[in-house]
Amino acid sequence: MTQKAVFLDRDGVLVEEIFYPHTGEREAPLGPNDVCLLPGAAQGLRDLRAAGFSLVVVSNQGAAAKGKVSIGSLWLAHLRFLDLCAAEGIAFDGCHYSFSHPNGTVPHLSGSSLERKPSPYFLHLAAAQLDIDLTASWMVGDRETDVQCGQAAGARAIRLCNPVQPSAAEVVASDLPEAAFLIIAAAR
């Protein structure tokens, strides 16, 4: 039976981005102690699951490619993320990460990548693995590359941003609970 899914960017959608003084940037958690679910994220995920959606995380994690942290540290952050979600009663059907970056400094992680959003590679992979109908699915992200990824795969897209921010997304929402409400309403 074909499934409908919500593909979710992790950082800025499910997890707080962190300001690191040593990098001068607000970015994805670089280690497990920095991982914190955003307010309302767990409830939004539970609502989507209750409405029959598969849940798949698709995230660019370029910090290792830039030499800021090891892939091992990013993996520990991922495991902490899964633990926090499990404590809220949430499990994902898939989690896909691209560790590359086009401007990376670590040679084997630098340059163009098939997996890195806005490429829809991971959405197509998950669709094949989980029997997902991409045309009945959504991509939720906080960046325009998330929107482009979803649209390139044939899914609908919601961007989490200020409503006056320009976006090619079909819908904008302020946070995941609002996005979940809009997705569930559109599925009725």
Topology diagram in text:
Layout: E1 4-8, E2 18-20, E3 25-27, H1 41-50, E4 53-60, H2 71-87, E5 94-98, H3 121-130, E6 138-141, H4 144-153, E7 156-160, E8 171-173, H5 176-187
Helix pairs in contact: 1-5
CATH top level? Alpha Beta
Query: What fold name goes in the CATH topology slot?
Result: Rossmann fold
Q: Based on CA inertia axes, which overall geometry fits?
A: globular
The overall pLDDT, averaged over residues, is 96
The secondary-structure element order is EEEHEHEHEHEEH
**Architecture (CATH level 2) name:** 3-Layer(aba) Sandwich
Number of DSSP strand runs: 8
What is the topology, as strand order, of the major beta sheet? 5-4-1-6-7-8
- How many helical elements? 5
CATH homologous superfamily (4th level) name: HAD superfamily/HAD-like
Instruction: Report the sheet with the most strands, covering strand number, pairing sense and barrel closure.
Output: 6 strands, parallel
Helix content: 25-40%
Total domain count = 1
Unreliable stretches covering 5 or more consecutive residues: none
* Range of strand content: 15-25%
Structural class: alpha/beta
The radius of gyration is 16 Å
N-to-C terminal Cα separation, in Å?
A: 19 Å
